[in-house]
Amino acid sequence: MQTSQQTKSVDSVEETRLAAQAINVRKTYGSGDTVVRALDDLTVSFERGTFHAIMGPSGSGKSTLLHCLAGLDDVSSGDVFLGGVNLATLTEQERTVLRRTAVGFVFQSFNLIPTLTAEENVLLPSRLGGQKMDPEWLATLVRTLGLEDRLTHKPGELSGGQQQRVAAARAFATRPDVVFADEPTGALDSISGGSLLAFMREIVEKHEQTVVMVTHDPTAASYADRVVFLADGRIIDELSDPTADKVLDRMKTLGSHS
Amino acid sequence: MIRATLKSILGHKMRFALTTFSIVIGVAFVSGSFVLTDTLSETFDNLFEDILSDVDVSVRKATDEAFDDMMMQMPDPFSDEALAVVQGVEGVAQAEGAVQGMGTYVTPEGEQIVFEMAPALVMAWHEIPELAVFEILEGVSPTENGQVVIDSGTAEDYDLEIGETLGVAAKLALEDFEIVGIAESPGQGAMMGAKFAFLSRQEAQRMLEIDGQFHQISVVKTDDVTREELRDRIQADLGSEYEVLTGDQATEEMTEQLGQGLGYFKSFLLVFALIALFVGTFLIVNTFSIVVAQRSRELALLRAIGASRRQVRLSVVAESALVGLLAGFLGLFGGIVVAGLLRGLIGIIGIDLPSGSNVIALRTVILSFVVGIGVTVVSAVMPALKASRVSPIAALRGEGFTARHSSGRRVVTGVFIILFGLVLLFLGLFADTSNPLAFIGFGAAGLFVGISVLGPFVVRPVITAISRPAMSRAGVPGTLGVENAQRNPRRTASTAAALMIGLGLSLFVLVFGDSFKASASKAIDETFAGDFMLQRGSDTGGPPLPFSPHLAEEVQKVEGVYAAVGLRGQPNMAGIGGPWVYEEEHSKAVIGVSFADVEKGINFKVLEGEVSEDNPGLLVHDAEAEEFGWLLGDTVKMQFPTAERELQIKAIYEDSRALAGAKYVMTSEIFDEVFPNGQDMFAFVILDDGVDIEVVRQRIEQAAESYPGIRVQDQNEIKEDQRDQIDQLLGLILVLLVLAVFISALGIVNTLALSIFERTREIGLLRAVGMTGFQLRRMITWESVLVSLLGAMLGALSGIFLAWAVMQALAEEGFSEFSIPVVSTVIFFVLSAVLGVLAAVFPARRAAKVDVLSAVTVE
Ligand SMILES: Nc1ncnc2c1ncn2[C@@H]1O[C@H](COP(=O)(O)OP(=O)(O)O)[C@@H](O)[C@H]1O
Ligand SMILES: [Mg+2]
Predict the structure, then answer these.
(1) What is the distance, to the nearest Å, from the Cα of residue B101 to the centroid of all Cα atoms in its chain?
(2) Could you give the CA distance from residue A71 to residue A80 in angstroms, rounded to a whole number?
C-alpha cells in the first residue's frame, strides 16, 4: 500500500459520483518559442452513468485531454483523477493495471489486434489481468452490440462498423469506471456510426456505464447527455441534453467568438 | 534516387547495422583466413631462410617419386660411408652427417615431455658451426656420452637448468643424461613448438638404433664452385640411391610443403567462412524482403511520381551495395582480429605459431570487397525485383506485396531444389567424383535452400504443435507470440532457415561424432582379443603416437603375459602413422607384425594359407587379392619409399578392423628393413590364464615406465580414450560453427526488430488496453523462441539426415553404428530456446519502449 491514502484518493463524498476529473490541468508540447499549450489550466469533471461528448475545433486539445484523463499521457501540471484515484501517484505498472481495469478505449481506427478473433479481442483486457470475464456481462455486450455471429472472425474479416462495435465491447468488457472514445465514428458511414452510438447510449443507460467521447459531428454529440466545448485548451462552454441543432447553434456562436 | 537510398539507410541505422554486421562476420572470416595463412607463410619463409641459408648442399636417401606428395616424412637413414664419399668431392669445404628421430624426455620431477602438437626430437649436435642451426646459449655442446643439450624453449617451459638430469628415450628405453647446455636457434619460431634434445653423434645414433648411419648430410662449399655445380658433382659420385639438393632447393621444398599444409588449413577455415556467408545471405535476403515490404508505400509513391522500375530496382540494389561496401571494409579489418582469434584458438590446442606482423595482401583486400559487395548485392536482387514489380496504386492503397508465386509453384521449386541437392549430395558421397567435398557441400546447401523454400508451409502446423504443450500456462503473451510467429510464414520460415543451417550443421557434427564413437567402440569390441592395449599419447589427448618396438618385447617378458603383439607402422613428422606402399598406382596402408603372435592378439580371420613364424612374407586382405587377381603363393612386387621388395603371399585374410584398415600385413622383420624408422602404433597384450589381472597390469606398467607416455589400457579405458579424442575434435568444429549460429541469431534479432517496427501501432494498442511491459517482453520472447525452435527442428532433421547419409557412404570404413546422442540433442534444443530468449532481449526492450500513444496517433 502507498504511504498516504490521502494523496491517492479525494475525500470528498462528491468524488465518488465522478468517474473522471481534471483539475487545473496544463499540457504543453515543445519549449521556448515553439511551445504549444494543448491544455491550458483546464478543469472539468465527468459524472458516472453519463454519456459525455467533447467538441471543439481541430487542434483545440480534445485528444490531448482524453489521453491525459485516461493516463495514456502525462500532464505538465495539475491533477487527474480516475475513479477517485490521482494518476500522478501511480507507477507505470499501476497505470497499466488501471488501464486494463478502470478504463476502456475506442479509437477512431485500428482498435483491434489483427491476429486475434473478435471474441479474443473483447476478452483481451481481462485475460491480460489473468481474470475471467463475467460470461453474463459478455453475453449482454455481445447481444447489445449485435455481434453474436461475428465472434470467431478476425478483424480483417469484419466491416469497419463491426470492428468499432467489437472495440466498444472490448472497452466495456471490464465494466470500467469510464470508457474514452476518440472520434469512434470518424471513419464510419452515417448508418454504422449511428448504430454504434445507439449501442453505446443503450449500455450507458441500462448498465450505469460512463462514456467520454470526442467528436466533431453534432449528430454524434446529440447521443450524449452533455456536451463540453473546448477551444485553445480551455473549456469554453457546456450544454446538457443536446440535440444536433442545439449543438450546431452553439458551435456557430462559439465559432464567431474566436 | 541515391539520395533516397542514403535517407533510407540513415533512417534505419539499426537495421543497417545488423545487416552489415552479419556480412562483416563472414567477410572477416574469409579475410582472416587469408591474413593468417599469408602471415604464417611469410614468417615461415623468412625463418627457413635463416635456418637453411648456410647449407650449400644437402644429401639424403632418394625416395621413390611415387611418394613425392607425402609430407614431412622422416628421411630414411643411410650408411655413413656416404659421408666419406661426399667429403672426397672437390669443392666440398666441410660436410657433416645429421641424425634425428622422435623421442620423449622426463624431467627430474618426473614430468614427461612428449609429442603434444609438435614433436619432441632427439638429434645429433652439429659440430661444424656453419651448419649448426642451434647455437649454445649457455654451457657447452654435448661431446661426451651421457650429455644432453636442450633448446631454450623447452628449458624455459619445464624449468630445466644446466647440471640437472634429463631422462631421454628414443628407440631405446629411457636413459639419464646430464644437461650440459642450453641452445637457441634464430629459426626457432619455425619449429612450431617442437622440442629438441641434442646428444653427441654416437649417442644419438645409439639411442635411435642407427649406429653408423645418418639421415642427412649437410655440406658447405668452397668459394670456387657454385651450389649447383657442387650438387651435380656430389650426385654423380653418390649415384641415384641418393638425392642431392642445393640449399635453395631444400628451402624451396620446405616452403612448398608448408604451403601445401597451410593450403589445407586455409581451405578448412574457408569452409567455415563460407557457411557464415551462406547464413548471412539468408539474413540479408530476409532483411531486404521485409524492408521492401515495409517501404512498399514509399516505393509506390516514387513510382507514382514517375520513377521507373529500373530506378526502384536500383535504389534497393544501391542500398545493398552500400551495405556490402561497408561490410567489405569492416570485414577486411575484422579479418585481422579473426586471424588473432584463430591464432589463439590454435595456441590453445598446443601449436605455437610463430608471430610476425600481419600480411594483408592486395588479393585479400580485393577479395574482401568482392565477397562483401557480391554477397549483399546478389542477396538483394530478388527483393529488388519484387520492389520494382509493385504497382503504384496497389501499394499506395496499402496492399503491399502478397505472394506473387502461387504456392503450387513454390512447392515445385522447393522440391526441385531439394532433389537437386540430394543428387549432388549422393554423387559426392557415393560416386567417384574428382571433388566429393564440393559436391557434398553444394548438395547440403541445396538441401538447406530447398527446405527454406518449403519452410512457409510447415510454419503454421509446426509452431502450433510445438507451442501447444506450453500454451495452457503461457497466457495472452504466449497466444499472441504464437500468432505473431505464424502471421507471416515466409518471414518466419526464412529467419528460422538461417538458424537451421548453423544448428543443422552442429547437430550433424554431434550425431556424426556420436556415431563415430559408437562405431569405434564396436570396433574395439570386435577386434580386441587381448586384455590390454598399449598406446602412447600425450596427456592432453590427441592422436596416438608411435613408440619403440622394444616395448612389446619387454612386455612379452613380463611374468603373467602370454603374448604382446606390436603393430608396426611408420611414424612421420606429423605424428600420424600411415606407411604407404605403392602398387599399380594404388597407395595402401601397410603394417608389420610379428607372425609368431599375431593371431593371439588380434581378431582376424585367415581365409587361406597359414601365418607362422617360420614362414615370413606378406598377408593380403581378401578384397585386395580379388581386385588384383592374386592367389595364395603369388609373388607381389611392392614399392616402398626407399626400397623395393618382392614378397610372397602367405595368407589371405578377411577384413578386420584390428589391423587399423591396413590392406597388407608383413612380418615385422621385413617391415623394419623397408621402413627403417618403423615404430609400433599400438600393441596388444594377452595374459596367461588365471593370473591376477591387476597384479600383472602393475608389472606391465612398471616395464612400460622406461617408455614415457605409454598407457596401459583395458577395453573400456580405450573406448573412453577414443571418445575423449573424438569429443575434442567435435569441440573444435562446434566452436567454429558457433559463428554461423551467432549470425543466424542476429537474423532473429533483425527480423523481430523489423516486425516490431511494423507493428508499432499494435503494440501501442496492447499497451493501451492494459498489457504490461513485462507481458509485452514475454510476447516477443515467445515469438523469438518459437522461431528459433522451428529453426532447431528443421536443423535437427536436416543435420540428422546429413549425418545418416554420410555414415552410409562411410560404412565401408567402419562407420557402422548410427547413433543419435539423446542428451546432446536435448541440450541442443534447450540451447536453441535459450538462443531465442537472448535474441529477443533487444527487440523486446525496444518494443517495451513503444509509446502507448502510438496506437492512437495516426502517422
Ligand atoms: N505529440 C505532440 N507534439 C507536439 N504537439 C502536439 C502533440 N500532440 C498534439 N499536439 C498539439 O497540441 C494541440 C492539441 O492537439 P489535439 O489534442 O490532437 O487536438 P484535437 O484532438 O482537438 O484536434 C495541437 O496544437 C497539436 O498540434
Ligand atoms: Mg484529435
Answers:
(1) 27
(2) 8
pLDDT at residue B298, rounded to an integer: 72
Asked if residue A38 has its Cβ within 6 Å of ligand 1, the reply is yes
Residue A166, pLDDT above cutoff 90: yes
Judged by CB atoms closer than 8 Å, whether chains meet at B765 and A97 is answered as no
pLDDT, tens only, B361-411 = 888 899 899 989 988 888 888 888 877 776 666 655 554 444 444 678 888
Give the Cβ contact number of residue A151 at 10 Å.
16
Please report the pLDDT score of residue A10 as a whole number.
46
The percentage of residues in chain B with a pLDDT greater than 90, rounded to a whole number, is 22
Distance of alpha carbon B275 from alpha carbon B282, whole angstroms: 11
- The dihedral built from the CA positions of residue B312, B314, B317 and B319, taken in this order, carries a sign that is negative
Distance CA A145, CA A122 (A): 12
Helices (H), B675-819: 693-704, 715-758, 760-768, 773-809
Closest-CA residue to A255 (of A234, A231, A238): A231
From A26, A36, A65, A214, give the residue whose CB has the most ligand 1 atoms within 8 Å, as the site to mutate: A36
Residue B666 pLDDT class (50, 70, 90 cuts): confident
The grid cell for B581 is: 606402399
Which of the residue ranges A191-200, B447-456, B745-754 would you say has the lowest mean pLDDT?
B745-754
Task: Mark yes or no for CB contact B765/A120 under 8 Å.
Answer: no
**Which of A67, A97, A99 is nearest residue B853 as measured by Cβ atoms?**
A67
Residues of B in contact with A111 (CB under 8 A): 765
Per-residue model confidence (pLDDT) at position B4? 64
Q: In what order do the strands lie in the sheet with B92-98?
A: B92-98, B216-221, B57-61, B242-246
* Residue A43 or residue A96, greater confidence: A43
> Ligand 2: distance of its center to the CA of A229 in Å?
14
The 8-class DSSP code of residue A9 comes to: B
Mean pLDDT for chain A overall: 87
Q: Has this prediction a pTM greater than 0.80?
A: no
| Residue identifier of the C-alpha nearest atom 4 of ligand 1 | A29
Residue B214 φ then ψ, to 5°: -125, 160
| Global ipTM | 0.85
A72 near B CB under 8 A: yes
How confident is the prediction for chain B on average, in pLDDT? 82
Chain A CB contacts of B775 below 8 Å: 128
Do strands A226-231 and A234-240 pair parallel, antiparallel, or not at all (unpaired)?
antiparallel
Output the CA A105–ligand 2 centroid distance in Å: 14
Contact B792, A151 (CB under 8 A): no
Give the closest of A73, A124, A182 to B769, CB-based.
A124
Q: Which of B9-13, B119-123, B649-653 has the lowest mean pLDDT?
A: B9-13
Q: Is A105 on the interface with B (CB under 8 A)?
A: yes
- How far apart, in whole angstroms, are the C-alpha atoms of residue A71 and residue A90? 10
**Residue B300 or residue A132, greater confidence:** A132
A62 touching chain B per CB within 8 A: no
- Which range has the top average pLDDT, A53-67, B405-419, B510-524? A53-67
Instruction: Give the best residue of B856, B858, B859 to mutate against chain A (max A CB count within 10 A).
Output: B856
Kindly identify the ligand whose nearest atom is closest to the C-alpha of A31.
1
In testing the pocket of ligand 1, which one of A64, A108, A229, A258 has its CB within 8 Å of the most ligand atoms? A64
Ligand 1 atom closest to the CA of A65, numbered from 1: 17
Q: What was the pLDDT predicted at B728?
A: 79
**Cell numbers that stand for B587 in this block:** 597407395
Q: Distance from CA of residue A227 to its chain's centroid?
A: 13
Q: Which residue has the cell 484523463?
A: A69
Say whether A128 and B476 touch across the interface (CB within 8 A): yes
Which chain B residues are within 8 Å of A93, Cβ to Cβ?
A: 772-773
Q: Report helix, strand or coil for B93.
A: strand
